[in-house]
Amino acid sequence: MAISDWGIGIVGLGGISLTHLEAYKRRGFNVIAGADPNDRNFETIRTRFGLTQLFEDAANVMALDEVRILDVTVPHSAVHSEADCRSWSPSREGTLYSKAVGVLLPGGQRAGGDR
Fold first, then answer.
1. How many structural domains does the chain have?
2. pTM above 0.85?
3. Rounded distance, CA 31 to CA 51, Å?
4. 5-63 confidence digits (pLDDT tens)
5. 64 domain residue, yes or no
6. Which residues neighbour 91 within 8 Å (Cβ) at sequence distance 6 or greater?
7. Residue at 51 is within a domain
8. What is the extent of the structural domain holding 41?
9. I want to staple 53 with a disulfide (CB 3.0 to 4.6 A). Which of 26, 33, 85, 110 is the partner?
């Protein structure tokens, strides 16, 4: 499977997400969509990365069939987003958490305790 076949969705479009988007662009990865409850960076992301599918709700990104990998770049304080992203289809390739929000064990248990 070619790099361009791996559609990426990114949840959290502030701070570190711009670094991720730069790296994905440099390597030729296919970022499909992004979400953030605050739309302040949407215009920058449209202009710099050509990303047009931008949403205020992560569920819209997770619902896209072409998204095979989910990159979660939310702040530590947004632990609720981890729970939201756990509902993402296990039939997809994977979820990349940019912050150490905890390792999920089988059955949805967290290793390392709550933060």
1. 1
2. no
3. 7
4. 888 999 899 888 999 999 999 999 999 999 999 899 899 999 999 999 999 998 899 88
5. yes
6. none
7. yes
8. 11-101
9. 33
